[in-house]
Amino acid sequence: MTANGVFAVDPWELRETRLDLDGLARSESLFALSNGHIGLRGNLDEGEPHGLPGTYLNGVYERRPLPYAEAGYGYPESGQSVINVTNGKILRLLVDDEPFDIRYGTLHFHERVLDFRAGTLRRTVEWTSPAGQRVRIVTQRLVSFTQRAVVGICLEVEPLGGEVRIVVQSELVANEDLPAPVADPRAAAALRNPLVAEWSEADGLRGTLVHRTRHSGLRVAAAMDHVVDAPAEVATSAEASDDWARADVTTVLRPGERLRLVKFVSYGWSQQRSLPAVRDQVAAALTAARHTGWDELLVEQRRYLEDFWDRADVQLDGDAELQQAVRFALFHVLQAGARAEGRPIPAKGLTGPGYDGHCFWDTETFVLPVLTHTLPRAAADVLRWRHATLPLARDRAGQLRLRGAAFPWRTINGEECSGYWPAGTAAFHVNADIADAVLRYLDATGDREFEREVGLELLVETARLWRSIGHHDLDGHFRIDGVTGPDEYSALADNNVYTNLMAQRNLLGAADAAARDPARAGELGVDAEETAAWRHAAVAMMIPYDEALGVHPQAEGFTRHQGWDFAHTRPEEYPLLLHFPYFDLYRKQVVKQADLVLALQLCGDFADPDQKRRDFEYYERITVRDSSLSACTQAVVAAEVGHLGLAYDYAAEAALLDLRDLTGNTRDGLHIASLAGTWISLVLGLGGMRDHGTLSFCPRLPEGIDRLAFRIVRGDARLRVEVLRTGATYELVAGSTPLTLRHHDEEVKLDVGASRTLPLRPTPRLPRPAQPPGRAPARRSGLPGR
Amino acid sequence: MTANGVFAVDPWELRETRLDLDGLARSESLFALSNGHIGLRGNLDEGEPHGLPGTYLNGVYERRPLPYAEAGYGYPESGQSVINVTNGKILRLLVDDEPFDIRYGTLHFHERVLDFRAGTLRRTVEWTSPAGQRVRIVTQRLVSFTQRAVVGICLEVEPLGGEVRIVVQSELVANEDLPAPVADPRAAAALRNPLVAEWSEADGLRGTLVHRTRHSGLRVAAAMDHVVDAPAEVATSAEASDDWARADVTTVLRPGERLRLVKFVSYGWSQQRSLPAVRDQVAAALTAARHTGWDELLVEQRRYLEDFWDRADVQLDGDAELQQAVRFALFHVLQAGARAEGRPIPAKGLTGPGYDGHCFWDTETFVLPVLTHTLPRAAADVLRWRHATLPLARDRAGQLRLRGAAFPWRTINGEECSGYWPAGTAAFHVNADIADAVLRYLDATGDREFEREVGLELLVETARLWRSIGHHDLDGHFRIDGVTGPDEYSALADNNVYTNLMAQRNLLGAADAAARDPARAGELGVDAEETAAWRHAAVAMMIPYDEALGVHPQAEGFTRHQGWDFAHTRPEEYPLLLHFPYFDLYRKQVVKQADLVLALQLCGDFADPDQKRRDFEYYERITVRDSSLSACTQAVVAAEVGHLGLAYDYAAEAALLDLRDLTGNTRDGLHIASLAGTWISLVLGLGGMRDHGTLSFCPRLPEGIDRLAFRIVRGDARLRVEVLRTGATYELVAGSTPLTLRHHDEEVKLDVGASRTLPLRPTPRLPRPAQPPGRAPARRSGLPGR
Asked: Which of B360, B420, B560, B592 should one mutate to test binding to chain A, selecting the residue with the greatest count of A CBs within 10 A?
């Protein structure tokens, strides 16, 4: 199922030109609006038909019990699921008493446009009611980046035939009926009526509903207010009950006349604050929004995005669809993270209920590299959220009989929600991933305040975890046994190379940070003995190597395991986890997602270029990409080792994953990490950027892409990189000090305002490596065999 | 908690001399009666007080859903739990209208005797009612070995003071209220009211109830009839309702008079047969029992046991408690297996609901060695049950994408019920354990009919499984990766030595058996290519070895794992699984139960004597015996490598596990495998018997035991072995052909009726190996340091 033929290719917007009712849930995800605080799925304004109604507030979840057929010590007893909160998007319309519903009457024209520069979703419809009244309806919706509690919707209706009586019913609806969930482990748990009514009110054209979640006890308030602009007399009324509030606007429009109604919706939620406090908070947000007004909200939104694109834009010549896709991706990454502010960025952002709204390692490993280089404050906010959950992570480490902090594999509020420990709690690498994100953020920004307040403690507590998980063996090697790396088709292996290298980085990074700020380190109980133990463990870290094959095993013994029988695996048996037992997957050489190859990207210094190429090609043959967290990594390392065409193909796969619904579950929400991976594929892949040690670039262009230009932020510096076949140009657009970077082996020092152009290196012509049969990425690169 | 002070030491019975109300559930397990078909816990006749009422029918279970917090391919969706069926044991007594209840009035005398030769539970009580009437009550109960559907109870009441009116209410009660289950993973799932009434009837002193289980749809019928012998006029009546039937007997007894009431109860159950068929079946069983009569049932029972002890008795001089314990153990092993006949032997036999009534590998590995050498028909019956479940095991293998048959880790009806696959389905060794039991049975009996009908197919299908689980690596080694061995504190390891050696034995045994019967093998699709592949895999089997330490790792890499921090593990933190996450247990060197050491027992030929001693001593230091499936194995190997005092200690631990409630869960049922392990400890341990290859003995006596004598069956031969300090005597008591055995390296050929006495070998005086702090077995051997 692809979304082909529904969307037009345009560099700055995603435009839908016809309505595909079967793909409605998918388009609701693609057209989702969010500021990281509030998320609205792209449901039709009139409420129905819908694929999956969705309004999400970051951090609002319901508890549910986690059952086990056989219980075990340390298993989490309760999980968290994101819930669909009070729906404030609904604007029902009656045309001469007939409800506007595109399933009835005649739909003459339909267009929805997600505008990456305006930050709005615009919809234009021309429709004739079953009784023959033709109207044009234009709506525009935004979730404000500048006023984070506010949603605005503008509805305009005009008759295209004779005079019509128009009724608009604007609603707040809590505890909506949701479609039955699909049987897919990646989907969400079903929770019916999670909201318990506390207070409701209607007054004039205002309405307010306050609820509490049944088990998690979070208070959620939603309020709406309206501004009506009509050519004739308007009758209004409002009422409210426990689970709904409604404001009605009635008028008569003659041909050439137009009704315009602006709806402001505000949300507030809290674990602790009282009902009056939360109720007043949403009233205040409404007042502020009304004061700003719809037109000014639009202006603010556009200005916010102008600034973002100025820091973050990626330009591609030669592939218009990929150009669109990378901006679509950046737009959604921005939406997921812009105003999360002390709350997590879930795997799906706030675009759908998939994975129960949980945040995983995806955030630090895939999303933060983008935010660190485009919107560093948002990256810091995520890590501040992690820091705020440190007490829970310390408790979890204690429960697991470990020291330091053990961050959860999946969570909303900071508590572990994983119900299958071999592919959950045992994936301790999440802790090194968080530390890695801290180190890269510090490296990019030099933010010493952050380091003192947040960064050092995160590094210290994760280093302590590693020191207590691993041990020195009789030969002095530091081993980390029985953990699960990124590849979810392996589990509980000894000395997973990715994990060990990332732990090494974590241990050294913590020791270095402690040395930079001994006073603060001392407050955290760190002494020289402890940092020495970290350094010793890091230096002695066991990195297994298969001498016979000349490659790194993903984990100790991996390369001696049986190969997967790809020849007898049918196409419909992917993803394998739905058709084969974990038992079989775990003990064979089959890789769900980049693991050793991700180590080559993130800690590549451990292998020389030839070794990297051998490793990459070995894992290409056995990696099936049943995870969306793989193509971008493969793109990066493919580009580095010289498989440029393949890198291009993987970049396109990452970029089009949701636009083409390649994994068949875009309905449950967008894959934010894969969207971020689009940027990673282009900037780290084709741009060859690396940010461990000196910032460096090894740019290259595959056939089919004639120009790549991107901008990144390093602290207060803004760097523009443009890659042409004739050379790469580095320009320090803004900043306070010169910036030093490397172009391949060459050091380049840029003054503010200066630029340097350097030649590209020739790319070797290597035979294209093989993937498992049927699992090669779709060819995007021009020439076969490249 | 021990049962000390409640039981008298006696070689042929377990006698309880006072009633410990707090230990009631435990004593109900110890006093359970069973014939392998029907099991009755030792509940008091009058029903209350009780610890845990229990009546079990082998194979009668209820289905229940198995929930998962995160589902996975191939996880069993439903489990099975043994249920407490219609209770036919109840005989309520009223003394002048006061109910006989030992919690009221005065209990002057209490005795319960489990008689290992009579096969009965006798109880004698003298009690004065709150109103002052003193009576003596004697009951005797049996579950018939000779009439497998029949239970008999004889009640005698006599007044010890004045004239009393006696009412006996004899009942059948279905869906009894059960105490709330304890939170212990080893206990059973709670199922309320599993029986749905189908039919009830009362007529004269007969009563019948027929039910069906709610989800599993098994039809269960229970019927009772009575024979009354009273000195005076007796009034009787009976009535029945859905869940109970009652027969009342009323009379007046004067001093010196006695009422005797015999109650016969019969049970029948079926998945398929109709209500009338099952109802008539229990009526027929009652008729037969009445025709036999109580006294003759007692005679039959005693005769059956005489024959058993003649084949199976073990005698010990010097340790009266252990003498009692080994007969108690053999009696319960007999009860568990005697008449199972095509049904499993559960881990708890039919003595309690522990482990949900499931059958595990315990049966083949611990129970069948005993039955094969004492009651070979019962051993064959178990394997015939496994054979009957082959279609399910083949289906399961197919579901797991394997060939051959994958027998369940835990089951009642043959379907996998394990809800945690790393310590369930992944423990594939159960398949080799079944094959091993087949090979040993064939070796002991030469039963070619069994081999043709059952044995060969079991060997072939398990060999196929191993061939498809394992693979030849680049060096040609045959590896078995990612499986779980016996030790449940490790999981998903590569090349577990126990598993690989047992698989090797399985593959060779299957190839040999196929060569013996090529015609039957051909019917099973076996050709020379396949058996050659089996032999090749077996010969190339990977057996890892740690050259640096000079020991076999339990699995590849095991000896490089971190040691467990025993010094900081507190006594109350055992069993470790209740206090530490699996994650921590799996990746460290801590062993729950004999694993490599069990390989030394079952496949010891792979290591020379010195290697065995080094291996044993290495694993002694890290084995915590949090499982009851360990002490006996440690006893056997300790004896072999020369640690005789330690062997004695472990033998005593296995023997007294339930009698002293060493694991604190005897309340949920007896540990049948550990009871069988008592015999293993003495016969394979002190007797040094091995039955792979030529039957051989290396007998030795620890200090404190002056004589050990035992009898075993080999086909139609009965061998008696007596070990004295002066020498070991082998006597072929009966048989049709001479028997060849080995005494150490010496071959001994015995004619029927002949005996040979040979000297014992001196035992080396070795320093006693260390166990983890606090985990040494209780000293039983006389001298410290031995």
From this structure: B560
